[in-house]
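Researcher: Good morning. I'm working through a list of sequences from a screen, and I'd like to move beyond sequence-only analysis. For each chain I'm collecting a predicted structure so we can compare shapes side by side. This is the next one on the list. No need for commentary yet; just the structure.
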Amino acid sequence: MKLSAEEIGYIALFEKITGAVTKDCVTDEEENKILFVVKKGDMGLAIGKKGANIQRVRQVIGKKIQVIEYSEDPAEFVKNIFHPLRVNNVSISNKVARVDLDDRDKIATGRKNIQKAKMLAERHHNLSIVIV
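Model: Good morning. Structure tokens for this chain:
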């Protein structure tokens, strides 16, 4: 996993403001968004009381912020990627993750969300395909 100098700078700023340990950072220029993957258990620190930390980071950087909690368990990590959508089940076999979403949320999974899930699953758990 390679990070650009810009992404390393975003991680330093994010950690300074939130106190959360950051494992990864991905910039999405198309959506004007930065995605941070934080250490398991640091999600509360990252968000802050009533979302204050996320709001502060958003104001300083001037982009939308998304935070995903890391997990050593690939199925749990894939489930975290799709949060806040309701995931019924994640099954993994032969480097393929199959995600069963609640019918109410299936329409909310656009192409961008699936691409993001695939990219993160590959970067962190060597999963090559994510099927929803």
